[in-house]
Write a structure and sequence with these properties.
Helix content: 55-70%
Number of strands: 5
Mean pLDDT: 91
Number of helices: 28
Largest sheet: 3 strands, mixed
Strand order of the largest sheet: 3-5-4
Length: 634
């Protein structure tokens, strides 16, 4: 049974794609009156609560329910009737807590400047921490009941069926569960384990440098995270792009010893927790919760390294078409063929809805409904959280946050987030509360498959090589970032954690040497030794905030590549895919993917991404050559 844990629950309820989309920044918005925004382009928060007073009342009710639940401590051995009461109370309180969090978190994200709402959110997290400590007894006490007895109780009580997977999985992970006092101690130390990542965020966000750079035009630019991201993809002059990159990276190089100490703290904390629970490695601990074989991660890294020649070929082609002698990281995001047109949101919605017709009527119709009043917050506004994400609340709905500016990237972002939204909706509709929440391991399958469907539609309907080049590059950048780059980070994490577990020191020098070796393995001589990217391990937030998280982006992309190919070859495979989306978290994710037709232990599955990437690189080369021929022909 998955008991409440503050760090695990925040990662579970926190928008699945928030970290993936955090860099999809856009210009500062003009001031907009939120009241004037059409209802189909903003969240309806009254779907949660009519007021904060109602929220406060439910928060008090939730804490009272959890106090009542804590009163069952020491009583599970009484028999199945007591367990039934515990499960009923656990579900009802959990549904309420889900709604409370959704209301507080989403209101916070609509206006991060509002201190009153920030305080409400803080109050929510504090309550969550108290609740997690109150329930630390549940798993240890379940484990005092023999597994055979528990299985018999479940078999004889239909009310237990929704909890079968969670209850029996407790015994699988039981050998790594401490006794009641040990679990309580670890629960109390949970906030401390996040201190290193909090220091990183403070150093990079609150106290981070915002250097001034003079462009070739004489314009002075203050480099922020958003400006850095925008400059690499928008600034046409390569000298300006490199200047922005060097200015932004200077703070990470200058403080490399500090960042190494912080990251060492993250890795040491992970290893200490793993040893406390009896794991052989930090990787084993992080994979065990969802029963993921370690070979999946090691095979992923091997497959990505094996396909790196295609990544290098892509950038060699880009270098040729851009006419750059000195090509590096700062040149990798400028479009070969920038689209000057923008895409109106109201025209994009039917395009995306129509692109998912291959998934059947139910999916298509429900996708259209997701764009209806109250579920998508579209426009960028003052104080609104940047980026894009999907967040679901059981019994309320599946919500998407956007900061839509009308770029091609924004179009694919909408398709991506609505893939998450549909996955969340179908899981909520077809699963009980106890198994509705799917794992991160499968979370990016639906989102990336929707992007593939959109690209498929665009390429079928558009013949203009300029537009086709832009569409193809959008997907190539997605694969580069979701598959190759995440595999590089997974490689770095595994090796860094291995160093600590062998008693080796993590220093700025050793971490930089490690990252350089990985960059060389993936990019070859495309990135020169003096490129600032060679020291960029220090600026990757995932490494500090979410250890052994990023590999799942890559495995998800591999899964969606295989599923897309299967559905193109055999339409009956669609039903298996939809069953995956409807299954929520009712089984281990590897089993869910196998039922859908994807076996991640099969090397061919991981190699499917390289095949897709190679096909798109060939297509890009062909389309750009066609474009040049048209230009020469006048």
């Amino acid at each position: 049974m998955k008991i409440l844990n503050i760090s695990l629950l925040i990662s579970a309820l926190f928008p699945f794609s928030m970290l993936a989309e955090a860099d999809r920044t856009s210009p500062s918005p003009d001031v907009i009156d939120r009241q004037a925004v059409p209802a189909n382009q903003k969240w309806n928060m009254e779907l949660f609560y009519p007021s904060w007073d109602a929220w406060e009342a439910d928060l008090a009710s939730a804490e009272a329910q959890y106090m009542e639940l804590a009163g069952f401590q020491g009583r599970l051995e009484e028999g199945p009737e007591t367990l039934r009461k515990v499960l009923e109370l656990y579900d009802s309180a959990g549904i309420l807590l889900d709604r409370l969090y959704g209301f507080a978190a989403q209101n916070r994200d609509l206006d991060t400047r509002n201190n009153e709402i920030q305080a409400k959110y803080g109050k929510m997290i504090q309550a969550w921490s108290r609740i997690g400590a109150m329930l630390s007894w549940i798993n240890p006490e379940i484990l005092t009941i023999p597994e055979e007895t528990m299985t018999q109780w479940i078999d004889e009580n239909p009310d237990f069926e929704p909890h079968r997977f969670g209850l029996l999985d407790t015994y699988r992970t039981g050998k790594f569960t401490l006794d009641e006092s040990g679990e309580k101690l670890l629960s109390l130390h949970s906030p401390v384990r996040g201190s290193a990542s909090q220091i990183y965020r403070a150093l990079t966000n609150t106290d981070g440098d915002r250097p001034e750079v003079e462009l070739k035009s004489g314009e002075m630019v203050t480099v922020t995270p958003g400006v850095y991201s925008k400059a690499l993809s928008v600034y046409k002059d390569p000298v300006d792009r490199r200047a922005i990159q060097e200015a932004w990276m200077e703070q990470f190089e200058a403080r490399s010893n500090t960042f190494a100490s912080i990251y060492n703290g993250v890795v040491q904390q992970n290893w200490a927790l793993a040893q406390s629970r009896g794991y052989e490695s930090s990787l084993q601990m992080n994979l065990n919760r969802n029963d993921i074989p370690e070979a999946v991660v090691t095979s992923l890294v091997e497959a990505a390294r094996g396909g790196a020649h295609e990544l290098q070929r892509y950038h060699t082609i880009r270098q040729k078409f851009l006419g750059r002698e000195d090509y590096g990281w700062s040149d990798m995001f400028i479009p070969l063929m920038p689209l000057e047109k923008t895409f109106e949101y109201d025209t994009v919605v039917p395009l995306i809805v129509d692109s998912v017709r291959p998934l059947g009527d139910e999916y298509h119709n429900k996708m259209a409904e997701q764009f209806a009043d109250g579920f998508v917050d579209v426009l960028e506004m003052p104080g609104k959280r940047p980026g894009a994400y999907n967040s679901g609340t059981f019994g309320v709905g599946s919500f998407v946050l956007l900061n839509y500016q009308g770029t091609l990237n924004d179009v694919f972002t909408v398709a991506h987030e609505l893939g998450h939204s549909m996955h969340t909706r179908l899981s909520q509709e077809y699963q009980p509360f106890s198994t509705h929440r799917y794992t991160i391991f499968v979370a990016e399958v639906a989102s990336t498959l929707n992007e593939k469907l959109l690209l498929q539609k665009l390429l079928k309907e558009v013949d203009n090589p300029k537009d086709r080049i832009a569409f193809i590059e959008e997907q190539l950048r997605q694969i580069s970032g979701t598959y190759f780059l995440q595999s590089m980070m997974a490689d770095f994490e595994m090796q860094a954690h291995g160093m600590v577990e062998r008693g080796e020191a993590l220093t700025a020098e050793s971490l930089t040497a490690l990252w350089q070796s990985i960059v060389n393995a993936f990019f070859g001589d495309v990135i020169a030794e003096d490129d600032p990217y060679m020291k960029s391990w220090a600026r990757i937030p995932h490494l500090y905030n979410s250890p052994f998280y990023v590999y799942q982006y890559a495995t998800c992309y591999a899964s969606s590549s295989v599923l897309m190919k299967q559905m193109q070859e055999d339409a009956t495979c669609v039903d298996r895919y939809l069953e995956l989306l409807k299954s929520g978290g009712n089984d281990h994710p590897m089993n869910q993917l196998r039922k859908a037709g994807v076996d991640l232990t099969n090397p061919d599955v991981l190699n499917a991404v390289t095949e897709e990437f190679s096909y798109l690189v060939d297509l890009l080369d062909k389309e750009y050559t066609r474009y040049l021929d048209q230009q020469r022909a006048g």
